[in-house]
């Protein structure tokens, strides 16, 4: 897959290729996004076009100031991997800046549809583009002049409610990773690197891999989770603690830790790039009166994680 980074006002040379393109930010690549992207891939096959995706980096709210802190359900590298798995030949990544945000809908269409060789564009019903988001899907068709086709994918729902990144974030904030997985079409995945921790888990008989998530990762609420852990292409079952370890840590420490005790592995993972898949929440994080009480609870957590993962198709 080719990734073309675009800095406004440049227009990349496409070599005369013609594309069926899906357009959107696509954070999460959830089931609604999959409908949009999948349709663009289908049109590409039907019309003999190259399948492409247009997305933006960073999130517009990081530039326009509507969010204090921006996190991503699918950080950049993971999003590119998922798009490749879906069949994209080319991904156009527009660097979202205040200058780019000022283009008119007409300029956007001229520069980033016509001149890119897009012969068919697919978007969601709520896609917007151009200054102040004034461009809407109807404008894509109205301004096409017959130069490209347009497909607009309607609302994709679950239990009569729209599947959206906002809904998934809300579920994650409550620790409902299994509900989020249903909307994503796969478990939430967190990529990161194993770093050295304080080794307290090893001292009490439950060694953990401390994962430093890639910057900007959207993490679920603190708690204990059944999870899988991928390292060097091998998948391991585990019980994960996300939180502030109140039994041990200074209450003023606000760094959220992600630690995974592997149920079927004992070895050195320091420095490894890994992927955690969050399967189901077991319980909230809480403070224990002492080490013995904590160890007893971890043993119960391990048993519950084993039960959950034994019945889960992704483990």
TrEMBL record:
SMART domains (alphabetical): Flavokinase (SM00904)
GO molecular function: ATP binding; FMN adenylyltransferase activity; riboflavin kinase activity
InterPro entries per record: FAD_synthase, Riboflavin_kinase, Riboflavin_kinase_bac, Riboflavin_kinase_bac/euk, Riboflavin_kinase_dom_sf, Rossmann-like_a/b/a_fold
Keyword terms, alphabetized: ATP-binding, FAD, Flavoprotein, FMN, Kinase, Multifunctional enzyme, Nucleotide-binding, Nucleotidyltransferase, Transferase
Catalytic activity: riboflavin + ATP = FMN + ADP + H(+); FMN + ATP + H(+) = FAD + diphosphate
EC code(s) of this entry: 2.7.1.26, 2.7.7.2
GO BP terms: FAD biosynthetic process; FMN biosynthetic process; riboflavin biosynthetic process
Enzyme class: transferase
Riboflavin kinase domain: residues covered: 183-310
Keyword Membrane part of the UniProt annotation: no
Pathway: Cofactor biosynthesis; FMN biosynthesis; FMN from riboflavin (ATP route): step 1/1; Cofactor biosynthesis; FAD biosynthesis; FAD from FMN: step 1/1
Transmembrane portions of the chain: none
Family the entry assigns: Belongs to the ribF family.
This protein's name: Riboflavin biosynthesis protein
Naturally occurring in which organism (per UniProt): Bhargavaea cecembensis
Organism classification: Bacteria, Bacillati, Bacillota, Bacilli, Bacillales
